[in-house]
């Protein structure tokens, strides 16, 4: 195999794993910020107070830099500067609050201060994503003070090193230039092409396989990749709103190009699955020849074979397949064309986080009524989570004291971290399980690694940087990887301090389990946001967007006027976004439910995917320049719209697994 082909396949696989480069940016900025802050902290402590040692200032500055690095991916440098200016103040406030709490009383006062700091750190999230990071830094300052118990002189030294770490982090963000919309958009489009190639390769493989079991597995893999293709198309839509237009095209042109190609891929995949199960041998061979040519990127051959299939077929399904195969081959061969919408504002359908990734279940949770009584229903989501997190931290800290007086803060840390980036009960339970698994695996692996590497500071710093890079990069795959890498880095740090042994590993695992259990219990019993309720809201949102699109299309047909194709495309992308949100919100139920219930949930989600596919087909079927030729089809379109609307209304209000299908 030529080297260029191998390299291209590796790059395609990397692009499919991280299409928006959010994980890459996060890993690079966090690792570079951590390394620069460790170096700056060592220089600062050596010059200012060498007698107190460099370990604590290095750890403090490094942790703050690593946490604030996520906000340094903001496209506006002024926003990064604002975080860099406020982070030392929040972090230092956490240090001082703990110092005052320990001066006023004993452990009970410290736990109460833990709860108060948690409430403030979580409550400030209502002011925006930047304050989520700042609240985290403030809480971490309190935690480090509780963990290290610095003296007054050491606290002053730590406070002096915080502005240096913030300046270093801001400088790293400027040097790395993490926000390059044009390059990121090009990477997303490459990921789109690579994912399409993988789906077509699966379709070709299905037509070759004779084993029913292997065919079913390939079909499931192709379904998962199709969902991933929708996510990549939404990422492209989001970055089209930020990147400069490519030469000789517009964001509207690229969106239309990808949308039509996506519709053609849907048809090709469906026909390939049908040909493997129901079509006779001659038809199956004809379909496979077309799919094989598409999978090999031989567009001319695919068009020729599709024309032959179209001329000789008597089936409407095969004619549609041949038509879409020709369209797909043509679209893959040609670049997106420009259009008349050069000055029209492009409105992305997908909402992205500041780091350039798609939003999670938190975009649905604020609109879901909690199950905590009428008074709590009007509370802001950040206030609800602040009450939950502060109560969980206080209980976890008190329970952790029963296990270890010296390390009870790990239980409080676990309870707090589990409430970061989660919203529903299912999300919190899933994250608690992932954190427990990652910690357990990391501590088990840490024992031979610590024995092999020793306690040399340079080796420990190198391992910490490697764990930071790998953990942040693989977080998008699973939260388990981040916790595994974090546990390895923490074990190396304790090894340098001479405290790592098998007893410490057992205590850390136990404290993490206590914090995880407490977080799940509090999230379940105190102002809970039900995953089922979130699914219901996401499903209703999906149905509303489908009905709005169908009503708009039917209205255009009735009035016999040109269709605003770009508006319909935007509405079609909105249906895709709502389908993705529904899948994200329902993900915890697919993890925790087993047997028939899990099967019903998968069937229900697959039906919602079918709604999205049919919506794309409706949008792509409408002509772009007038609807005069569809006048006689108006009644049929209306009946189609009424049928889908009636179907959506007949579905159960609550998504009960036994009735999900």
UniProtKB/TrEMBL annotation:
<feature type="transmembrane region" description="Helical">
    <location>
        <begin position="386"/>
        <end position="404"/>
    </location>
</feature>
<feature type="transmembrane region" description="Helical">
    <location>
        <begin position="131"/>
        <end position="149"/>
    </location>
</feature>
<dbReference type="InterPro" id="IPR006726">
    <property type="entry name" value="PHBA_efflux_AaeB/fusaric-R"/>
</dbReference>
<protein>
    <submittedName>
        <fullName>FUSC family protein</fullName>
    </submittedName>
</protein>
<keyword id="KW-1133">Transmembrane helix</keyword>
<keyword id="KW-0472">Membrane</keyword>
<feature type="transmembrane region" description="Helical">
    <location>
        <begin position="77"/>
        <end position="97"/>
    </location>
</feature>
<dbReference type="Pfam" id="PF04632">
    <property type="entry name" value="FUSC"/>
</dbReference>
<feature type="transmembrane region" description="Helical">
    <location>
        <begin position="103"/>
        <end position="124"/>
    </location>
</feature>
<feature type="transmembrane region" description="Helical">
    <location>
        <begin position="440"/>
        <end position="473"/>
    </location>
</feature>
<keyword id="KW-0813">Transport</keyword>
<feature type="transmembrane region" description="Helical">
    <location>
        <begin position="509"/>
        <end position="529"/>
    </location>
</feature>
<keyword id="KW-1003">Cell membrane</keyword>
<keyword id="KW-0812">Transmembrane</keyword>
<feature type="transmembrane region" description="Helical">
    <location>
        <begin position="155"/>
        <end position="176"/>
    </location>
</feature>
């Amino acid at each position: 195999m030529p080297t260029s082909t191998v390299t291209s396949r590796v790059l395609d696989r990397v692009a499919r794993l991280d299409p928006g480069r959010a994980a890459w940016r996060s890993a690079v900025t966090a690792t570079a910020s951590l390394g620069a802050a460790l170096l700056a902290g060592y220089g600062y402590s050596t010059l200012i107070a060498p007698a107190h040692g460099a370990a604590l200032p290095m750890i403090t500055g490094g942790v703050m830099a690593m946490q604030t690095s996520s906000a340094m991916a903001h496209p506006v440098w002024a926003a990064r500067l604002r975080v860099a200016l406020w982070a030392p103040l929040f972090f230092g406030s956490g240090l001082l609050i703990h110092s005052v709490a320990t001066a006023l009383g004993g452990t009970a006062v410290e736990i109460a201060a833990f709860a108060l700091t948690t409430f403030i750190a979580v409550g400030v999230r209502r002011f925006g994503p930047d304050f989520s990071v700042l609240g985290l830094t403030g809480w971490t300052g309190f935690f480090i003070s509780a963990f290290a118990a610095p003296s007054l002189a050491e606290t002053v030294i730590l406070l002096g090193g915080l502005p240096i770490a913030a300046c270093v982090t801001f400088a790293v963000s400027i040097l790395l230039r993490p926000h390059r919309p044009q390059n990121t958009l090009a990477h997303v489009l490459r990921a789109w092409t690579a994912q399409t190639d993988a789906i077509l390769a699966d379709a070709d493989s299905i037509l070759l396989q004779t084993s029913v079991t292997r065919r079913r597995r390939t079909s499931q893999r192709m379904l998962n990749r199709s969902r991933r293709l929708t996510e990549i198309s939404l990422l492209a839509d989001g970055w089209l709103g930020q990147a400069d237009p490519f030469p000789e095209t517009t964001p509207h042109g690229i969106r239309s190009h990808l949308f039509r190609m996506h519709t053609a891929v849907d048809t090709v995949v469906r026909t390939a699955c049908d040909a493997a199960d129901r079509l006779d041998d001659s038809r199956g061979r004809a379909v496979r020849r077309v799919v094989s040519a598409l999978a090999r990127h031989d567009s001319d051959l695919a068009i020729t074979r599709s024309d032959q299939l179209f001329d000789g077929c008597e089936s409407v399904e095969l004619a549609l397949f041949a038509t879409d195969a020709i369209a797909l081959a043509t679209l893959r061969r040609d670049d997106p064309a420009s259009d008349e919408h050069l000055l029209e504002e492009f409105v992305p359908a997908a909402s992205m986080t500041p780091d350039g990734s798609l939003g999670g279940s938190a975009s649905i949770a604020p609109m879901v009524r909690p199950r905590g009584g009428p008074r709590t229903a009007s509370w802001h989501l950040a206030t609800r989570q602040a009450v939950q997190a502060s109560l969980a931290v206080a209980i976890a800290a008190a329970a952790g004291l029963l296990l270890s007086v010296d390390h009870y803060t790990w239980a409080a840390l676990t309870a707090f971290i589990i409430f970061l980036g989660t919203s529903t009960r299912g999300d919190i339970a899933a994250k608690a399980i992932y954190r427990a698994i990652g910690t357990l695996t990391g501590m088990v692996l840490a024992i031979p690694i610590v024995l092999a590497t020793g306690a040399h500071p340079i080796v420990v710093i190198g391992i910490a940087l490697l764990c930071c890079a790998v953990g942040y990069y693989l977080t998008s795959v699973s939260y388990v990887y981040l916790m595994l890498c974090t546990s390895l880095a923490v074990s190396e740090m304790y090894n340098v301090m001479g405290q790592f042994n098998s007893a410490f590993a057992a205590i850390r695992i136990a404290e993490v389990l206590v914090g995880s259990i407490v977080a799940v219990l509090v999230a379940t019993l105190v102002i809970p946001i039900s995953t089922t309720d979130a699914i219901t809201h996401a499903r209703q949102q999906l149905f509303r967007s489908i009905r709005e699109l169908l009503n708009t299309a039917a209205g255009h047909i009735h009035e016999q006027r040109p269709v605003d194709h770009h508006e319909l495309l935007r509405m079609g992308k909105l249906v895709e976004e709502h389908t993705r949100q529904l899948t994200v919100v329902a993900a915890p139920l697919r993890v925790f439910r087993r047997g028939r219930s899990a099967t019903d949930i998968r069937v229900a989600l697959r039906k919602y995917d079918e709604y999205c596919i049919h919506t794309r087909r409706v949008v792509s079927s409408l002509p772009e320049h007038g609807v005069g030729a569809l006048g006689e089809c108006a009644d049929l379109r209306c009946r189609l719209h009424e049928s889908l609307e009636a179907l959506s209304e007949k579905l159960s209000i609550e998504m009960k697994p036994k009735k999900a299908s």
